[in-house]
Amino acid sequence: MLEVRNLHVEVDGQKILRGLDLTVRPGEVAAIMGPNGSGKSTLSYVIAGREDYEVTAGEVLLDGENVLEMDPEVRAAKGLFLAFQYPVEIPGVATMTFLKASVNAQRKARGEAELSTPDFMRHVKQGAEKLEVNPDMLKRPLNVGFSGGEKKRMEILQMALLEPRYGLLDETDSGLDIDALRIVSNGVNALRAANRGFLVITHYQRLLDYIKPDVVHIMSKGRIIKSGDASLALELEKNGYRDYVADAA
Amino acid sequence: MAPMIRREHDAERALGEQFSAFRPGDASASRRQEAFTLFAEAGLPTRRIESWHYTDLRGLVREALPPAPEPDAETVAQARERLQAHEVPGAARIVVLDGSFRPELSDLSALPAGVTVRSVLDALATGDLDADLAAAQKLGAPESMLALNAAFLQGGAMVEVAEGARIDTPVELVLLLSGRAPAATYDRSFVKLGRGAALTLVERHAALGGAKSLTATVVVAAIGDGAALEHLVRVDGLGPQALHLGTTLVRIGAEAKFESTTLVATGGVTRRQSYLEFVGENSTSHLYGVSLLDGRAHADTTLIVTHTAAHCESRELFKHILDGEATGIYQGRVVVAPGAQKTDGKMLSKCIFLGEGANMYNKPELEIFADDVVCGHGATVGALDEDQLFYLRARGIPLREAQALLLEAFAAEAVDTVSVDAVKDEMVARVGQWLRQHGR
């Protein structure tokens, strides 16, 4: 279980998260919706272990273990995966080299044998086909010159290869056209499993037509202010965030 | 004007005494005397000489180390062992140990037809220097350390590639220091490429022990019309007591090519200086390199490229990775002579700091006396990108490995053109290895 308890986070002295509580169970897809500036991306970065945020109170528990003192690589090896809203370009590092380094680093951290190159290549090829990732992309430097859609498909390919316990999808739908949205969503849906949970952060309901959530949370001003089932997202789409933002103020 | 009065420095005085006692037993006494007189007049370079501003040898050379003696049997055996561990597959090998050419350690069996290798002392004793090499040698005329090298010259190789001979087999020039007792070494090698010839020369400097050392090492190259020389240099692991002064003097003919890539990963004080001159049209050169510096290491890269002929292109790209209290220096000067129209000259120096105590000095200079040229320079300094590091770590790659990946990628651009795969892979891998070794 992934639990966020009473999380308070500041950036440069400004309070971004103000006592956020959230639970994602294995097998569950939880969606977080909220207006710009409500702290959605901050939440995903803090869970993944980015350093620029100051946690002033609260915990993030992965199966009861607080991850907040762990380095990002340790959290990753324990099964947390963040699909970035803006995947980072890394010139000079071939995508395939990066994929192999990350898969084997996690296997090593968990005391598993590293994959042989042929096994790894086969694994990547299969995943790439499903996500319609052109094999040429794997030879290019990571994310450099990739289109918005290619970058997002690459994020999902990484998630498929790393097989995390919990996937955090930070605005994975942003910058995607309708075809790319379908491919990416199919990729995520294929990874849904009884022992894996997802936290889908999005601004729009559209993504949730493709990735059906079990629970929807509305976030505003650093807290979850309302939770419900998938129908809550539809209601939001109709009425907008205005009511909730006003309530929280 | 009254002559400048210079107070003699202890080390300079001691070098004078050493020279008086120096009896190399060859026919070059008058040439050596002439060279020593030049050195004695100028003295060790000081910070008052602009190009030596950041590497003040008068301050750094406190004592005159004696010229290294002939290596004994044990040293030769050690060198032999060391050489086995490092080799470029298939390459021919020239070995210079403590300044002297050692045929018994060299392996010239792989040398194809069209290349000859001789001892430089024999070559100089038996005939006049080839006119192109003599002209190339003049490029460094103002350097007193080159005069000192000529005065005390212990050995080196004369490599000649015949007209039209395009040699696929790399030729290694391995310069080993025994490092058992404090010593100075003075070697000079010559490389002559006839018209249309091609050669890859892999120059490596290494030490068997860590005793205090002064190395004045020189490579003089003359590249004939239509010829191509690739010069790969590695100065590695000399230790904190080493003072390494390496000079490359290159004269480039018409429609010719000179490509050099240098890796410096060593403690002590290093200065790698290159003087290039384009004397024929439509030629290209590139000077690329990487330096990996930590502790109190000091590495000075000084490049002087003179475009005498028109329509030539020169490129410089250096990547510096600095940690600890290391000092990096990049001085690039491009001189475009009157009439050298359509010159295309660019310099770029990029530095990454891993710690906060290091210093980087960039000094690009353009001296342009022609009006239709494209010349430019750029320099960047910074730290590793935090977003990139986080991204890699968020995928499970530990911090040190993430840094190594990013630094290897940073350095890779500067070694990308290396044609010998074994050397290229080794240079890139050295970056990650260095990072793990020095342990931040």
Automatic annotation (TrEMBL), chain A:
Record-level Gene Ontology MF annotations: ATP binding; ATP hydrolysis activity
InterPro entries: AAA+_ATPase, ABC_transporter-like_ATP-bd, ABC_transporter-like_CS, FeS-cluster_ATPase_SufC, P-loop_NTPase
PROSITE patterns xref list: ABC_TRANSPORTER_1, ABC_TRANSPORTER_2
Highest taxon above the source species: Bacteria
Domain ABC transporter: 2-246
NCBIfam families registered for this protein in UniProt: sufC
Name the record gives this protein: Fe-S cluster assembly ATPase SufC
Species for this entry: Lichenibacterium ramalinae
From TrEMBL, chain B:
Residue ranges occupied by any SUF system FeS cluster assembly SufBD N-terminal domain in the UniProt entry: 30-172
Record organism: Lichenibacterium ramalinae
Highest taxon in the source lineage: Bacteria
Protein name per its UniProtKB record: Fe-S cluster assembly protein SufD
Primary gene name: sufD
Similarity section: Belongs to the iron-sulfur cluster assembly SufBD family.
Residue spans crossing the bilayer: none
Protein's GO biological process: iron-sulfur cluster assembly
InterPro entries associated with the record: Fe-S_cluster_assembly_SufBD, SUF_FeS_clus_asmbl_SufBD_core, SUF_FeS_clus_asmbl_SufBD_sf, SUF_FeS_clus_asmbl_SufD, SufBD_N
Record SUPFAM superfamilies: Stabilizer of iron transporter SufD
SUF system FeS cluster assembly SufBD core domain residues: 183-410
Name of one Pfam family that matches: SUFBD_core
